[in-house]
Amino acid sequence: MNESPATSFEGLAGVHMFQTISGPLVAGAISIALAAALTYAVRAFAHRIGQVAKPKSDRWHKRPTAMLGGLGIFLATLIGYFIFVPISAESLVIMGAATWLFIVGLIDDLFNVKPYQKLFGQLVGAILVVGYGLTLPLTGNALVDIWITVFWIVGITNAINLLDNMDGLAAGITAIAASSLAFGLLGNGQISEFLFVSVFIGALIGFLMFNFNPASIFMGDCGSMFIGFLLSASVLLGQSGGRSRGIFTILAVPVLILFVPIFDTTFVTVLRKLWGRKASQGGRDHTSHRLVALGLSERSAVLMLYAFAIIAGGLSIAVAQLPLTSSFALIGLFIAALTIIGVYLSKVKVYEEDQEDLAASNNAVFAFLLNVSHKRRIFEVILDVFLITVCYYGAYVFLFGSFENGGNWDLFLQTLPLLVVLKLFAFFLVGVYRGLWRYTSIGDFVVYAKGVAIGSVLSIVAILLLYRFEGFSRAVFALDAILLIVTLAGSRMAFRLIRELIPLPHQGLGRRVLIYGAGDGGEMLLRELRKNPEWNYSPVAFVDDDPLKRDKLINGLKVYDANGSLVSVCREQNIQEILISSNKVEPEVVKRVREICSEIDVRLMRAQMKIEPIDFE
User: Fold this and answer.
1) How far apart, in Å, are the Cα atoms of 227 and each of 75, 174, 220, 318, 382?
2) What is the predicted pLDDT for the residue at 506?
3) Does 47 reside within a domain?
4) Which residue in 216, 282, 274 sits closest to 58, CA to CA?
5) Which pLDDT belongs to residue 438?
6) Which of 250, 407, 504, 566 is the most exposed place for a label (fewest CB within 10 A)?
């Protein structure tokens, strides 16, 4: 039976869609295999000619590692480009300029050129791209847009170069960012550009097989400058054709795609300037290094940054589809979360104490900011203004959808300043700004709930008096209160949550101690020991006289039965000290434990206002 024209057309459309998706997938898969084979060969070649990175005090790797891995990425991308990608003038210009950056980086790897010479090479590549007409159309002024684009390309190229500080980090983040860009190009129907980026992603993944922890090869400057330049310039392909909806989308999408390298570069540059160090010099103070200093493994730190990159990439896709105000809200929440994380990471010590003291004494700007940092209430108030705005807006969106063009939008704008003032007043009234985030507890949640409740009541009363509540929805204010209490408590719990998710520095490196008493006092003692690593104690387990607590877990530590098994527990767990957690322990029990400690050469301590030894005499 012959198919109808409509059916035949649908079949052809399905085949075309399959070809559209399958083509880049096949090209990417072949690029992966090609890059893996080339990287394997380059690694052997680098060892043969002595291009090996040796460990240094300001570098992260601990063993000699082959360099020139960027050669494998470059060749795989170049070959895949000429085989699979339909050649266009735009892609040819970008590929040619990226090749120039690869050569500049290769010369630096071989001969160690000066920073200003590398910058000159980056400017030449950027000018080649903008000279063809590829720019970020931000201002409508051609000259201004050209220089913004040059700054963008050079900045991202150097950001990826700085991000190349830990196994698999630069290649993985670039692959994730390129994947976000590829989804955007596919959504815009830019199939040739999508194919171009797919080849690039495949080359990165093939190299990552040898570069992920533990890395057997580094990409070097020839790799980091090539992939940074190619990625930043490829973003310009997504701005062609008038597909963008305005200056916010034009700026937000590429920034989100490359948020992790931008965040890391800004973070490191600001902190190095505050410490009086050169931003261009190497160091172990990047975001990844600080995560490791908190106790994460190298792999975990890199995977956490991968997760941030994926979230940012997802936001970049959402921003292109959502209304402008919704995009603002999402990006604001993301930036607020990253700001809290950045503040937390900035407190991690990565330099020697004497170096920090010297930098602080010689740096007036740092001293000023150090004093301001103790007045974190300013940050809390600014954060709460943002949360009040987002929650009020979110309540309207949840109930009415997109409301920017209706009467509800006017009501929202008219009453927002009033709500911000009244709710902040309520927060001050009940004492929201008196607590410390790291010690947030259930009692603080009650304070937050009171503040939100009083603020909501004051807001409703004020709107009733000023506007007679005409046109307003009661459900908006109820939902707004719920959202605000959740976000307010969540922001205050952020520091404590980070402390729980990320181990503290030096955890597990101190004297191995056994906590006697698995009650409230023991749990409190465990938290204090973990919060104060400078005490040099590593809690191993609990022991308790209550047989019902046997084999239970308290904050991850097992409870052992103290009746008759204390000696075996100390020997099996290599215990060096026993800490008695409460003064309620009977004297005869203390005497028995003291005798056991004398027999097995374990020190006995009692936790009071401070940890003090018990006199055995």
Assistant:
1) 12, 7, 11, 25, 38
2) 46
3) yes
4) 282
5) 61
6) 407
3-state secondary structure of 578: strand
- Taking the C-alpha atoms of residue 53 and residue 221, their distance in angstroms, rounded to an integer, is 12
Distance CA 553, CA 571 (A): 20
Q: Confirm whether 506 is domain-assigned.
A: no
Helix (H) or strand (E) holding 513: strand 511-516
Q: Are residues 468 and 489 in the same domain?
A: yes
Residues 461, 517 share a domain: no
pTM beyond 0.70: no
The per-residue b/e assignment along 117-128, b for 16 or more CB within 10 angstroms, e otherwise, is: ebeebbeebbeb
E-assigned strands of 33-184? 52-53, 65-66
- Specify the number of domains making up the chain: 3
Average pLDDT of the chain is 79
Same domain, 441 and 357: no
Who's near 242: CB < 8 A, 6+ residues apart?
Answer: none
Per the document, the length of the chain is: 617
Sorted by sequence, the CB contacts under 8 Å of residue 516 that are 6+ apart come out as 522, 542, 543, 544, 562, 578, 579, 580, 581, 585, 593
Query: For 545-591, where are the E strands, in sequence order?
Result: 553-554, 557-561, 577-580
Do residues 430 and 447 make contact, with C-beta atoms less than 8 angstroms apart? yes
